[in-house]
């Protein structure tokens, strides 16, 4: 069975040394709730819970899957007990406001806990994932009674949340959605329609499930401007908080999927279900989008979690498995063969995972810092800056970390050779689980259009400029630091090229809007690789200034060198592909895709 | 359910127009067996069999899997009947010598049939895969009685074959193998040991199973120089061909795998089983290697087959699925949204699959032509040239086509969005099935070392020079051809760079043998992309000279342009990574891969 030990040393290094969260927390109201002793204790407890409770259920959950019987969904053995322990430990409210029963710890601490959950048991984690989104919607858009009634039990964890967007004929294109909402005399709405791919739409872990449902009033404008958001509980809840009878919101079936089999992916039927409007009428998409950044960063964390676990296991195997001799002569003459970690390409695959896990951790936690600054800072300028930077970083976090999770879990599996293909060893599950992460919460294609089309073009790249400024400031500050000089030069050059290339694309897009779509995915990868190069340079500096030993510092230095030598050059191809422009994709007429 | 229609137009185009097989067949003994009417009839029948019989069993076979009970393996419903039809149609002997009951059609025809099988049902295809290897071993190394006794029923198909190499502690490193062979008074050997990952090691499709087993005599030299090859039938067979009692060669269990679940992957226990030596004592690995090129090309065909089927299905979906409007304005204003094929990145993912399927087909069939020239040509110079070229092309065919199969099946799945992750649609199975192809028959890492370490360095790149000569001759011949000028220039430049880069690596490897291992995988991809660029240029010329219509010719031209603009630039990154050298992988001490 595959192992998992929370990488607490590196998690703490990223929080304290790379990102200096203590200084940031001190500026936030409630920052006094998070001194280092508390953070350390939370991380230790999370490591125990995820390692001892969740990780052992990962494979059995995959093999058993969820079961559906006449609208009732049963989760795999042990999931319910683990969830009860999760509630018992007070985890559901870790980042939620104290007035509703939460601990209001900073989002970046929640992000670190989340990383451990995703490493230990991604499928189980999906039951907690959307509660966060539902809570955010309630906090930002709910009326006071709605917060009182719905947010407290979600914070406590005996209720969970969902997001109900997708319908059979529309996933990405929500303007097409058909679910109806009709106003009722009591101020509620009657919701009718079918939603698909609803994660945790039905399960046996909690007493009630709060669906946030996008629907359309009969007289609403067409397209995305006529969509409203509704709270639709599994069991009806009135404005006083009294829980009533079963609502007409039922699970019609669950999907049989490639992976995350322990997660119930539901078809949800709303047959005149009672719902409550949340936020302004016809502004449902806006309300949903406020949950989107955090939810997308959350999927990026899933990618990070999978890379970390894949790395731990493939590293252990590479040290253990004896096969062939090193090309430069036997390294363990006492054994019948050398451990495969002596072979250069095994090292390449290991270092790739290590490089993406460690810089990815810095990127992802930094994004969570922007979430908390945007949410909690009392300084409007800081808040605005964080919002803009977050909106730029989000598609990179989401798409890059998930695409790299696919690549890295495949590499980890490859290191196991034939054993990697066998279920028993657990490596193939990581690939299957990883595969969903580039699809849900907006595909990589959607993230790429969000980055280039919206964040760069439509919003004039304000978040991008913040990031470039940050990189520029870092490079200047490190100008005299010999330890990082080998990275600062290439990083500054890459940032310069990045800015110029962005201008170039913008200019060509003015003439032809297809250039955006033609460049977007390559531009996202390109941007992502430079982004992580920045974090690698920061990691080297932070390690140098930390109290860690020489081995730790050297390991960071070597991994950064690997990244700059073996990963950053991927940008060369992406630049060429971006410059190839839209003609190479659009000139071929549709009928010529198949000529018999 | 996913569809499959054999791409007969393109298969014929590659055979007749791109590779001009008719001219080649005419030079071979028995070439008169394969006039165009026969080839066309064989291809038509194969299209029917694979489309109507095998394809419908693909998903059910995956869902049902194989079952093991007390050494007996039951294949999924319908597999046995399909195999009976396969035998009935005379397919097992399609390429085997007439004197043993075969039709002795050229290998490239067999390759085209094989492509259709792999597209239709890869798991089912594995039961036929290793018979070919066993037959090749018997033809090249068997004594006359062995050919008489074993080859005839294999040719007929009522017996199948296996290759038993891997043991629990050794896959790649066969020098470590422990299975014992002890000489018996009757001239047979007693074989004892355990083999794992034996494809089709036990099943219910055929009357007997002929295992080719690597084992070691008690007094044999250590390592790979002490390995011999033995024929070990499931039911004992004496030298007269009489089938006797059950041999002590039994299936201890089958593996539960990520994919190819309809294929029985067996643990085989040999407990003093009766075996017959084939080939010289202690030369077992050599005998095995004669099967290796064809078997590895065969796995490359699996990659091709998966890409083709993934393409057909994702193209159909992209034409059908309505979602969002084109960035340059609505293309189907009559519909609620445009079909997603209007979006540039959907086209990028489709064109990638199309480009790898169509040039991959030319590469793979060309490799089979080298197999048949090496095997059948009466001209020793032609034979030698083909052998050398094949030995160079084999690792490229095997590794590139399978790695691209993973990439392309993932892209095809991505085009389906959330539906791609659901088993019902069939796309996720292709990814899971594809995943084995970069592992078995030598991982991508092993193929890369074979290419750079063995074919380029140890054998002084003789096959590589043949290939470069061919590319050079092509470029010169097409110098005045305007239609292909846009490709010939970049191709000639790439070939030049390839030769120089190879020299560069060779020079650095003289100083440090680790450079080979550090460069190998990037070098393989690099070489593969240029190789396919050559076939794309040939395809454009062949289309131009063919009797196909303008749409066909234009489609080839556009796809070639896509390939040169969007795939060939991948070489840029690989060059930079190769030049990064071994230091970026080897400098980090083993203990620094994890520092707590």
TrEMBL record, chains A, B:
Keywords: FAD, Flavoprotein, Oxidoreductase. It comes from the Bacteria. Residues 41-157 form the Acyl-CoA dehydrogenase/oxidase N-terminal domain. Its EC number is 1.3.99.41. Its cofactor is FAD. The keyword Cell cycle does not apply. Residues 467-589 form the Acetyl-CoA dehydrogenase-like C-terminal domain. It catalyses: 3-(methylsulfanyl)propanoyl-CoA + oxidized [electron-transfer flavoprotein] + H(+) = 3-(methylsulfanyl)acryloyl-CoA + reduced [electron-transfer flavoprotein]. GO terms for molecular function: flavin adenine dinucleotide binding; oxidoreductase activity, acting on the CH-CH group of donors. Belongs to the acyl-CoA dehydrogenase family. This is 3-methylmercaptopropionyl-CoA dehydrogenase.
